Prior knowledge:
The chain is α+β, with helices and mostly antiparallel strands and 388 residues long.
Amino acid sequence: MVDLKIVPITPRRIHNHTFPVAYHLSGPASQSDVEQLLKAKSEEGFFNSVLKEHGAIVLRLGNPDPAVLSTYIKIIGKGSGDSPFQQIGSTAQRTQITDILTNANESSPELEIFQHNEFSRFNRYPTKLYFACSKYEVTKSDGGEGKDGPNGADHPHSSVQTIGQTPLVHGRELFDALQQKVPLLITELSKRGLYMEQVWKYETDDHTGWTDKYSFGRDILEGDSLEQKKKKAEPLIAEYVSKDFHWDPSTNDLIVGEHTQPLRTYENESESYGVSFNSIPTFYAGMKYKKNSYGKTRSISYDDGGEISEYYLDTILETSRELEYNHEWEEGDIVIVDNYQVSHGRKPWKGVKKVLVSMWDKPSKAKFEGWTKVVQYLGMRDAPLDVC
Ligand SMILES: [Fe+2]
């Protein structure tokens, strides 16, 4: 009988665990053989336990048909005891492909998207993400960033070839690296929390306004008045995103204050450790380079209103880039990500690449607590004096 066999990729190593771990089929198999295998594996808890240990799983099952990918994901999701997560408050344009698969972020292929844990700045976030590649015909060319930096702005790194990789960062590794580099920042973020302010426009031409289906327009009907639209959106905003919101009286744009814990405690069997769980790299890069997806974030600070220094924000962004595992796609790949432990982004590309996404949640999940083991660093400074 066919089984899953480890594929030798080049992963990172984090606390003696490979990140990610990749599998392909041990031999030729029909679609129904693969379905039976995935059902048995998921029901015995294989994907749940491998995901906890490794943070991300690559499945190279060889079939890029979106309908088949969708079936495989549904079998794994349901067999693992999860339910589809309803996307509410999306800031990116999405198109529904199957009942559980949408296109991933549809912004321009030239745009680099930096690290974020999906919906981590909201009240509700999925536990698992499935990315699936249905088409991959990209042109291999050099960097594209060079000294001009990502998205045409000044940036010190020249990146890997821009072939649309999905960069993943393990939140434990990022947390540990920041604790080494800037321990006071860990203390400050833990104690003071994070504030981000986001704007959803009333009217846009790219389907990312607040009335869009994947934002807050799920119940809005054609012909609804502006007041009716607001009344339908408001409970969704409060429940899924934040209770702190208001409408701009002149533009009817939606302005949301998001109050979150950007560092959390991950409970992993007998072990518990700190993980980075936020969207700081994505949204700080958007503000820094002035060219991020849809430019919705307009402020980042501690939750008490205090400024997070540029030095700290740059350190988070740069460190997240240093720790990337860049997944190079093959058609038919499914990448399963533990959204609590691992953040993701997107590299630019030229050509055709279709990566679909499905979000899943664990019913009655435990609260994802903030990191509270705060250390006092008496007399210690994180940054050179001139930038503190
Ligand atoms: Fe995302």
